[in-house]
Amino acid sequence: MTKADLLKSLPAVGTVLDAVNAQGIQHVKLAAIIRDVIAETRQRINAGETPCTDSESICHEVIRRCIPANQSITRVINATGVLLHTNLGRAVLSNSATDALIQAASTVDVEFDIKTGKRGDRHANVCALLQILTKAEAAAVVNNNAAATVLAVTVLGQGRDVILSRGEMVEIGGQFRMPDVIEASGCRLVGVGATNRTHAHDYTNAINDQTGCILRCHRSNFDMVGFVSDVSSVTLAEIAKAHNIPYGEDLGAGALIDFSRFGISGIRTVQNAVSDGADLIWFSGDKLIGGPQAGILVGSKHYIDACKRHPLMRALRPDKLTLAALEATLQEYVRMSEGNIPFIAALELSIDDLNDRATCILEECQVGNGICIDVVDTTCAIGAGAAPTVGVPSRAIRISEGGAQRIHDALLAGTVSVASQLKDGCLLIDMRSIQPADVDDLKSALREALSARSAETSQS
Ligand SMILES: *Cc1c(COP(=O)(O)O)cnc(C)c1O
User: Fold this and answer.
1) How many Cα atoms are found within 13 Å in the side-chain-facing hemisphere of 202?
2) Domain coverage including residue 429
């Protein structure tokens, strides 16, 4: 091919963009990367080389450049106003949990007894802490609460009928639906009650010789109000006991402290659930507990042992990193120093503290013409489907004029990515969901984004 033919064979930017998008690749600077690759290929052709010019080769090079060479998981400052943001990795680990993770990166005694030099129990340390904290007879840990749900339903249901209220046939997200989990565990779902109301006799009427267990599932990501009623955990535990079947409760978020101290009501603690008498209770490690992703099961020794012995346990068991970080997080609760856990620390901040953050971030900002910035009252969400109706008072830096969308995008594409919230045409940068160590970086990021925006507006 002649030089002219080669140049002519280069694909258009739009063609490559469509091809890259079709592969699900997303990058904030995608169009610029494509233009670079095409321009560089054109230069090589002009210099007498014969590079591949088909759109597939160009596409391949673009995708390679979209993936950073040094790391695939990149830091993002969470200024979204969602405290536990599932897409941003939920809970931020405490310093002690982070130290434990780093230590666990090397060889450690995760399943080794230093006293005897023999094989040890992977769960021993964490489970001892869980027993102290929750007063449960026994405990086990798996990779996340979805895994705990699968394991618990399999063990409790025994391939038989599983009774669940129609008001609790929840979809958690990511298409994880309680009825599907029950079916996938080889059990048969028996729905009882109506969507809004379920009574004790609905459960007792459904029990027969095919019944495997009674299940209760926290609604997590939605709430029901109005003409509603459900059966208390104490009653369900009694019904199950009277019929000699087990009763399990998927608690979802799993709080280890009383959240009313932060003015947040209606969050059931694990301790409450344990004293209400369920045979097995399971919950997440990275929701209200503020630890690493994990699924925690507590309950009677009989059913916890059955979980630990089940072949699924080997498939779902947590690695040393999870166990190290979880153990360090639980230690903070045992020592009553849970204020060291970033999620709890965020709830402890006063409005004055949040104002101080905003003042500090804004103090050296050069605000160009036509951009309007102020600090306003807002409401944070807990996130992670933990308490959908709870709002936590917060303060946010608001950009109400001067290209909220452009500044939002610039913050994402900046040296350090900042995720903020666009609402009613304004940009909100929340002061409670960021971490104390983020303040300086957020300050530079905002300065960078604003000066780029000012340069843009002064040009036009
Ligand atoms: C969040 C949640 C799950 C899934 O927990 P993960 O830790 O995200 O796997 C399961 N059940 C309920 C009720 C939940 O709220």
Assistant:
1) 19
2) 76-84+346-459
At residue 73, the pLDDT reads: 84
The pairing of strands 372-383 and 417-419 is unpaired
Residue-wise pLDDT for 41-55, tens only, equals 999 999 999 999 998
Does 409 share its domain with 431? Answer: yes
Ligand 1 lined by 252 (C-beta under 6 Å)? yes
Tokens 């997590």: give the residue: 220
Are 406 and 460 spatial neighbours (Cβ–Cβ below 8 Å)?
A: no
Protein residue closest via CA to atom 6 of ligand 1: 145
More confident residue, 54 or 455: 54
Examine the domain organization and report whether 125 and 172 are in the same domain: yes
pTM across the whole model: 0.86
Instruction: Kindly give the distance from the C-alpha atom of residue 285 to the centroid of ligand 1, in angstroms, as a whole number.
Output: 10
Query: Does residue 71 fall inside a structural domain?
Result: no
* CATH of residue 434: 3.90.1150.180
Q: Which of 143, 165, 172, 293 to mutate to test the pocket of ligand 1 (most atoms within 8 A of CB)?
A: 172
Overall number of domains in the chain: 3
pLDDT of residue 460: 57
* Distance separating alpha carbons of residues 44 and 36, to the nearest angstrom: 12
User: In angstroms, rounded to a whole number, what is the distance separating the alpha carbons of residues 272 and 265?
Assistant: 14
Q: For ligand 1, is residue 158 a contact (CB within 6 Å)?
A: no
Residue 316, ligand 1, Cβ within 6 A: no
Residue nearest (by alpha carbon) to ligand 1 atom 12: 252
Q: How many CB atoms lie under 10 A from the CB of residue 160?
A: 17
137 within 8 A of 297, measured Cβ to Cβ: no
Contact 250 CB / ligand 1 (< 6 Å)? yes
What pLDDT score does 31 carry? Answer: 87
220 belongs to a structural domain? yes
Residue 28 and residue 108 share a domain: no
How high is the pLDDT of residue 364? 76
Residue pair 166/195 in contact (Cβ under 8 Å)? The answer is: yes
| Ligand 1 near 153 CB (within 6 A) | no
Average pLDDT of the chain is 93
Nearest CA owner, ligand 1 atom 2: 252
Protein residue with its CA nearest to atom 13 in ligand 1: 252
Instruction: List the alpha helices (DSSP H) in 340-438.
Output: 342-348, 351-362, 404-413
Q: Do residues 372 and 331 both lie within one domain?
A: no
